[in-house]
Design brief:
single chain, Immunoglobulin-like, mainly beta, 2 domains, elongated, four-stranded antiparallel β-sheet, 194 residues
Length: 194
Amino acid sequence: MCNIYTGAYLIVWADEDGSDAQGLHTSFKLSSEGETVLLVDTDGWGNAILDSVTFGVQEPDIAFGCSPDGTGRFEKLFLPTPMGSNRTTTAVLEEVDGVQPQQFALEQNYPNPFNGDTLIRFLILEDAARVELEIFNLAGQKVTTLVRGENLHGVYELRWDGRDRNGRELASGVYLYRLRAGTFVETRRMLLLR
């Protein structure tokens, strides 16, 4: 039992061993199937729920993070880097609300040619076991992976800034972008002008 005073906070965590750790360590972990966590006050009259949070089924191998300096909002990292710093974001993926796809499709990027960033839109008709959107140079070498996810369904727009997996600006030229969603595969060309 511990006291949490007004304006204060308590961090509870679980890890592999908990050695050399300050604070409140626990041996239980939350289920990826979804749970409700309660903060209760136990007194002589019974338990009072002070706060709670409920989360649903969690996607496997997905992480959330923010800028290294702690600024900005937490966003889904489609390419997490476990045990390392999160790399510079080179693409921002957003689901288009209220639009139901009628077929699988990878649309032409806009603008094309582009200088700076470009918008890539794709449609996933049904939950695909695995979805990947990758960029290749004309030699067939992969320069970056923009999306790696599971069970995506809907219409998505992605803004890409023309950088490789290490955050470096790519040179002017023709690049291929390929969408794989289950058995659906489509590739298109785009022209980057610096």
